[in-house]
């Protein structure tokens, strides 16, 4: 993999690795225990300019794509999967605005998200609308030059630490799924507040909050793209962002394996290193094989996404139209199936690998003073958020059957 990288990508990986090892890793245990928001470390990520790595230069970005996003994230997630979640949720907000925002909206919000000056969040989930986003009950009513939002969202990652939120609400409940729209809501808007902060099993450095909308008036201009396009926004963003969850799984699996390998090499039982027992060696071999399979699938997919998206992004910026319009004009392929496959494979692997890491370490692996149990706790949610792995499999199967039905088994990604 290292040989496939450009000079710039190699430099980015080096930068992210140094930041991860010097700043993120030493802080991981503290923020897991205290559940405080890791502001000083987020500030370090900001100073290293990593928030900018996947955004166009026009907005202060470094001109990379999903590949650069994943390369930087993999290094950070190796050190701790939870602290860099603020980076992850900011990418969700920024990608929503990049793909669906008007030129004015891009100029208004992307520079601050690219610099990390303001953090972003993305909240579609509601108490009654989890896997089924079409059940969204939050409403947005047009009132003159404003929309008025009312309802309750939940499970908002980065919570009150963010400042720019992508929120989903129905502008026309009678139209069901086609009545849902996406909005940008800024922190501090009257009627926008936070409810309870969740107490979680893992990812404890990443706060998860209820969001309360009570007569929340936002300018009409904060509507993303057009009324009724909310679920298009969510799906198109997930097509690009799910590799980001996949890499969270790979990064944390690599972190857990590094700690495990160090331990089993020095741990002696029956007069020999436990790593010399074939049963342990085979587990280690299977774990790393899964990581390398995941990395191959992931980076093959991110490169295909970047190849397809780059012309659309350039056209959207050049013609001063939403990138989504440019995607339609260029017939840009979508990567719902491939992004889902990356998410399913890498996050299921992360859960199995962290379970096996505890097993390889024995009792110490279960203890909170040893790093592996934290990776295990952090891994679980990856199979749940951004669409559970059951929902991913539904989507993958649906796409496969559709492709077969239309006899268009075209390979989007050339071998
Ligand atoms: C720590 C954490 C952070 C999160 N952060 C965010 C965030 O920032 N923004 C946001 O919007 N959301 C966020 N979420 C919410 C997350 O995306 C949802 O939890 C997830 O989509 C599942 O919804 P649910 O919890 O309501 O489960 P449910 O939809 O109630 O599902 C329950 C079970 O039924 C299964 N199931 C449901 N429907 C089907 C089906 N059709 N076929 C097969 N199986 C099915 C599910 O796979 C699951 O196993 C977060 C969640 C957690 C735990």
Q: Per CATH, what is the topology of the largest domain?
A: Butyryl-CoA Dehydrogenase, subunit A, domain 3
CATH homologous superfamily heading of the largest domain:
Butyryl-CoA Dehydrogenase, subunit A, domain 3
- Number of beta strands: 10
- The assigned structural class equals alpha+beta
List the ligand species: flavin-adenine dinucleotide
Number of domains: 3
- The Cα radius of gyration reads 21 Å
- Biggest sheet statistics: 4 strands, mixed
Mean pLDDT score: 96
Cα end-to-end separation = 16 Å
Q: Helix tally?
A: 11
Assign the CATH class of the largest domain: Mainly Alpha
SSE ordering: HHHHHEEEEEEEEHEEHHHHH
Please tell me about this protein's structure:
With 415 residues, this protein is of the alpha+beta class. The protein folds into three domains: 2-119, Orthogonal Bundle (Butyryl-Coa Dehydrogenase, subunit A, domain 1); 121-224, Butyryl-CoA Dehydrogenase, subunit A, domain 2 (Beta Barrel); 230-405, Butyryl-CoA Dehydrogenase, subunit A, domain 3 (Up-down Bundle), CATH 1.20.140. It has helices spanning 7-34, 39-47, 66-79, 85-100, 103-115, 230-266, 278-318, 323-330, 336-361, 372-380, 389-405, and strands spanning 120-123, 139-143, 146-157, 164-170, 180-186, 192-197, 208-219, 223-224, 268-269, 272-273. The strands form three sheets. It has a four-stranded mixed β-sheet. The protein is globular. The structure holds flavin-adenine dinucleotide (FAD).
Topology:
Layout: H1 7-34, H2 39-47, H3 66-79, H4 85-100, H5 103-115, E1 120-123, E2 139-143, E3 146-157, E4 164-170, E5 180-186, E6 192-197, E7 208-219, E8 223-224, H6 230-266, E9 268-269, E10 272-273, H7 278-318, H8 323-330, H9 336-361, H10 372-380, H11 389-405
Helix pairs in contact: 1-3, 3-6, 4-5, 4-6, 6-7, 6-9, 6-10, 7-8, 7-9, 9-10, 9-11
The protein binds flavin-adenine dinucleotide (FAD).
Flavin-adenine dinucleotide binds at residues 89, 122-125, 130-131, 155-157, 200, 203, 208, 381, 384-388, 390-391, 394.
